[in-house]
Amino acid sequence: MKVTVVGAGAVGASCAEYIAIKDFASEVVLLDIKEGYAEGKAMDLMQTASLNGFDTKITGVTNDYSKTADSDICVITSGIPRKPGMTREELIGINAGIVKTVSSSLIEHSPNTIIIVVSNPMDTMTYLVHKSTDLPKNRIIGMGGALDSARFKYRLAEALGAPISDVDGMVIGGHSDKGMVPLIGKAVRNSVVVSEFLSEERMGQVVQDTKVGGATLTGLLGTSAWYAPGAAVSGMVQAIACDTKKIFPCSALLEGEFGLSDLSIGVPCILGANGIEKIVEISLSDAEKAKLAESAEGVKKTNGLLEL
Length: 308
Ligand SMILES: NC(=O)C1=CN([C@@H]2O[C@H](COP(=O)(O)OP(=O)(O)OC[C@H]3O[C@@H](n4cnc5c(N)ncnc54)[C@H](O)[C@@H]3O)[C@@H](O)[C@H]2O)C=CC1
Ligand SMILES: O=C([O-])CC(=O)C(=O)O
Description:
By secondary structure, the chain is of the alpha/beta class.
């Protein structure tokens, strides 16, 4: 199993590290445009192998796509991150060009690959890869909901005073400060809906804290987060590599599912060897449907800025 990660910055390196630590891939290629940068990150990571106990071989390359040839899975993290006060949507001007060039170079050398898009604004970048390449739709997947759901579980556990392993919940919709739809009505503590434990007001706070999770970290760090994003990507890569058929909310191209079409947005998906094996059309309440529709409008507005 060969995995390429483009962008050896904060998220790309974290992603490579978690993939290696989980020890399911034979090889991870890190590629960056900055001379020597990916080579340095790869060497540093390889020097953790004996300490962390993995056999995955990590190599770094400067913009040499021939070294990525025949990758089973490619992750795109190249592009600029936001700074405090910015939205993810403001990154489109620079990141669209990068994502378009990178995806076409990857496919040239790995025509059968599955692509996971991370660069922001992620739903729009995922849609751009659908529009600008010939890969089938099950092989282009955006990462956002896996991270947002992890943040939702963190906030739920905090509100409940419960261990994180006791809570479950999912976030669907666009990966943006306003567009996320944390499904609070379906969130559970050991199979009991959280409304049994939390007031309406506290649940509203959990939802709001989840939606601005990325912005909160950007304010604290001066740039956006990387540990949880890297872990979220590695979980999706593992589900595909090991054909686990686990459900992750992913940005998938919709063609009528949930009453939506011609956009990529976060919905529950079964991930396996074929990438998105199935979009799971869970039933939503009227309020949840309205929020998803509003979120889709926001994503489409950003898609409208693409030069296709
Ligand atoms: N979808 C999600 O949930 C998340 C998305 N992100 C996004 O991921 C992206 C990366 O974030 P960070 O790693 O923090 O940024 P970073 O600045 O640390 O790393 C980005 C790397 O991309 C490289 N790069 C730029 N253009 C390139 C090209 N044409 N080819 C190859 N490499 C290129 C840069 O040299 C840099 O090393 C940002 O757009 C950020 O907004 C970040 C966290 C979560
Ligand atoms: O907040 C950002 O810009 C990066 C990101 O998508 C996240 O951490 O959720």
